[in-house]
Amino acid sequence: MSRYIVSMTPGGMHTLAYRNGREVRIHSAYDPAREAERAVAAFNTGRATMIAVSGIGLGYHLAALKAAFPGIPILAVEHDEEVVALARESCPRNLEGVIVVVPGADLSAVFEELDVAGFRGIARYEHRPSYLLYPEYYDAVMREMGQYASSKMSDLLTRFEFEERWVENILRNIPRLFTAARVASLFGRFSGCPGIIVSAGPSLRKNVRVLERMRDRALIVAVDTAAPVLARTGVSPHLIMTLDAQKHSIRHFLGLDGGGAALIADMVSYPPVVRSFGGPAIMSATTKYYTAADGAMKRETTPLMGWIEKYIEPIGDLQSGGSVATSAFDLLLNLGCNPIILAGQDLAYTGREIHCSGTHHYSEWLPRTNRLGGLDSMNQSIIRRRKIKYVPAYGGTGKVISDFVFDLYRGWFEDSAAKVSVPVINATEGGARIRNTEEAALSALVDRLPSLSPVPADILARALAGDRRERPDRLAAAMKAAIRDLEEVSTAADRAMADREQAPAVEELVNREDTALILQPFLRKARTFLTRYKAGQEEAERLMLTDIRSAAARLIPALAACLEKLGA
């Protein structure tokens, strides 16, 4: 028997009640539409550009919200799919244009489709009778929505800060594509081989020396911050991974000869790191795959890579959750590793420390210490400046200090561990608990994992030896064409600055397929600004023309320098 009762009001409107020992009215028994209008009249979205609703009932409050806030998307969360069915049957117009989320729905798909250019936050609306039936459920979903929204905004801000540098680094790294291996050549080559991701959390010191005993039992992948720690303790990873675009990333590699390891470098990595590394180099490309709200699988590449990929053979996609460790996780999945083991993945300030001793951070900070201020006080000072939070500790007893960013990564690992078909073992022995993983000491895994034949080092060597190189001819030709197109765009922009009637012609040139892909990273800030702050037509045209000229002035010499290094 249904727990819900749909009946008619004296005025001929559908209304809803919940039955569970007693009857609870979800809407007015007399005029649910008027009731909803009065409730919505007291609601204010502030600067928010999305409304998230807890509970839909028959949707009268949704209709009132649509009328009161036209143009603002509404996302309605409902605990009972039966209620959704009743609403669609009884009052279908109330739900028109509303995104309805039920248990099991993929919230990430909704937020991946979110246009963050004009996004200013979420306003939460509680349909009180619905909310009170399942408050914990609605609170949990709203928290999850907030995390997704924060992640999208963080992604936008990251793009603002680094996107142009990514493009410049990619152009400087392109020549290595034709001399180095590509990560795609490794995919599937380590089927059934255990894989260890070594990060530089404070707990790494507990098990760093155990890693050398694992070399013939597992593929060891060290993130760049952990590489100096391993080198100082005589541990040789098979792979070192970097994707940092910034100049300071070179510090992780100072005095590091590779130690027999190969370097996996993202195309956005700081070019001197790739050029100066003493061992083999393997290039990768960060790519995001997600399921859109319509169920279609979508692929999002690093800026400029969408254009480059049209003219080269595949590099190999690696998905990222925002850190090099999350990219390493996807790497091991693509290689076929089983199980995946995490070491040094504290995601917390274990012992009120930020990194394991031996990282370049400690090398940099040590000279600054004195009798009045040691490393402890320096760590404390940095932690206090961050937005901290307490999260469950490794082992399940007590809590540890983490922060907002660490917790986003923790959520990524938890979601990923739940979705993958291979076991994930957290051998960090400290830091934050990562749900959906097995907790085990690395020393205990030595006996569980047998020695492999062939050993991981030999598998890697054979994969790299079998990687074939392609010629850069197609890409070089595309670059020459891109330079000509950008010169044409720049000239047209100059004319339009003097004669605004020429502006539509510039827009037409900018929107050509290849030109749009190349220029997009340099125009994102201006386009986002114009979306958020409705500038007049003259001001908008002036801003866009200025940015177009500036972008062309930076890209043309960068493309020419790349061509010269390609010998084209």
**Which word captures the global form?**
flat
Taking all Cα atoms into account, the compactness measure Rg is: 27 Å
Report the total helices. Answer: 20
The proportion of residues in beta strands is 15-25%
Q: Regions with pLDDT < 50 over 5+ consecutive residues?
A: 357-384
Tally of DSSP β-strands:
20
Question: What portion of residues is helical?
Answer: 40-55%
- From the helix content, strand content and strand pairing, which structural class follows? alpha/beta
Task: Provide structural commentary.
This protein is α/β, with parallel strands linked by helices. The chain folds into three domains: 130 residues, Rossmann fold; 307 residues, no CATH class; 94 residues, no CATH class. The chain has 20 helices and 20 strands. The strands form four sheets. Strands 8, 9, 10, 11, 12, 13, 14, 15, 16, 19 and 20 form an eleven-stranded mixed β-sheet that branches. A four-stranded parallel β-sheet has the order 6-5-4-7, sandwiched between helices. The longest helix is centred in the first third of the chain and has 43 residues. About 5% of the residues have low confidence.
